[in-house]
Design a protein that fits this description.
Length: 413
């Protein structure tokens, strides 16, 4: 390329970076800003280019800023957020979105002004602006920033499911696992009146809390006896996901919820019990076995599946409880019992086989069918001995005069 007729533009940044580019005298300053945006990731709207004390306008031509005979311009670039800050409050939705995207590109961590401006847009009337603001806040706020975490937690209450999901993920960026501020503001949402907000809070707890975190367990446990039944449901669910396996206080707290009148809470408690129990836990096995007699079919079904998950192979207590459910009137409980038996009983388990065989004499054909399915699962296949006889072959022991043997029939077997 012939640079003899081009102007050399040298740009110095306040960060100490240098850039050299060639332009025609008739090229405009905006062309340089576009190149800087590509190379330094600074949006054109945030660039202020200075030649001496003069600020270059976007439409200015390079040839207008050179001395006679000179083919070089030296300038300084500084980053200014004034334009972006104004655009964040612009009535045009597109302007606000573009301003948020430019802030993302800058990645200016820790700027209080930028954090406050972006946080305000988390409550924007336009859902697309709110989604973009969620993403932008993770770029401008330092990890652990308390106001950013508090602002982001409000989006767990957003009406748009996409914003709620984005907020859950954003909290994992803004808060380290175990951050007390994040745990507190998230658990507060367990008390929200809307189901989807509480569900988002439960999901977020798995992101901001590490397993067995004492602060998280305390915050959740405090809501297990809440006057609102829906809050208690969410608290039981959250405790199961956040407690460490084998956490005895958590196991005791969840077990206590099995006394609730609400069948849905008891079902959730059964699942939570399995999540915070270690395999083979005798107390949990006994509890699950007792749940097999629950008046709610869903609770019984969950208990059967829980026994398959927690009990070791061959546990007679678990097998006995599972087999009893082969008599249940609900087909899905009987099916769950068959599936659980396959997990708990070994092939050829004498106790399991005897229990299943006893049910084969039940007057209800559905129970007999379920018992047979269960027996097929635990019983060893019978060996059938078949002697192969070649049709038309002579008996080697004969003198050759005996007639050949006839082909075997089903009665021969």
């Amino acid at each position: 390329m012939d640079f003899s007729t081009k102007i050399l533009v040298v740009v110095h940044s306040v960060a100490g970076d240098d850039l050299e580019l060639h332009f025609d005298p008739t090229d405009k300053v905006i062309a340089l800003k576009i190149r800087i945006a590509d190379l330094w990731q600074v949006p054109p709207a945030c660039q202020v280019l200075l030649v001496g004390d003069d600020v270059l306008a976007d439409g200015a031509k390079f040839g207008d800023h050179t001395e006679y005979g000179e083919m070089k311009i030296t300038m300084k670039m500084i980053v200014a957020l004034d334009t972006l800050t104004k655009d964040l409050e612009h009535p045009d939705t597109i302007k606000r979105v573009l301003a948020l995207r430019d802030i993302e590109k800058l990645r200016l961590k820790g700027g209080e002004g930028a954090i406050a401006a972006v946080s305000r847009l988390l409550g924007d009337e336009n859902v697309y602006v709110r989604r973009t603001a969620v993403q932008a806040l993770t770029k401008v706020a330092m990890r652990g920033h308390p106001r950013a975490i508090a602002a982001m937690s409000t989006r767990l209450e957003d009406q748009d499911p996409g914003v709620k999901r984005a907020a859950v993920e954003a909290l994992t960026v803004l808060a380290e696992r175990g951050n007390k501020k994040a745990i507190t503001v998230v658990t507060e949402r367990l008390e929200h009146r809307q189901d989807d907000v509480r569900d988002a809070a439960v999901q977020a707890m798995t992101k901001v809390s590490d397993k067995g975190n004492p602060h998280a367990i305390a915050e959740i446990s405090a809501r297990l006896k809440h006057r609102d039944i829906m809050v208690r449901r969410s608290a039981v669910q959250a405790l199961g996901k956040c407690a460490s396996r084998g956490d005895e206080p958590a196991i005791a707290a969840v077990t206590a919820r099995l006394q609730e009148r609400d069948g849905e809470i008891r079902r959730i408690a059964v699942r939570a019990l399995c999540e915070c129990s270690v395999r083979g836990h005798e107390g949990v096995i006994n509890t699950l076995a007792s749940c097999l007699a629950d008046r709610d079919a869903d609770v019984r079904s969950s208990a059967v599946k829980g026994l398959a998950q927690i009990a070791f192979k061959g546990s007679e207590l678990a097998i006995e409880g599972i087999v009893k459910n082969l008599e249940h009137p609900e087909v899905y409980v009987r099916c769950a019992a068959v599936q659980a038996l396959a997990q708990v009983a070994e092939k050829g388990d004498d106790f399991a086989i005897a229990e299943c065989q006893a049910k084969l004499r039940h007057p209800d054909p559905n129970v007999r069918r379920a018992a047979q399915d269960a027996l097929d699962v635990v019983d060893k296949p019978k060996e059938t001995k078949i002697t192969m006889i070649r049709v038309g072959a002579e008996d080697p022991a004969s003198d050759g005069d005996s007639p050949t043997k006839a082909a075997p029939t089903m009665e021969d077997f």
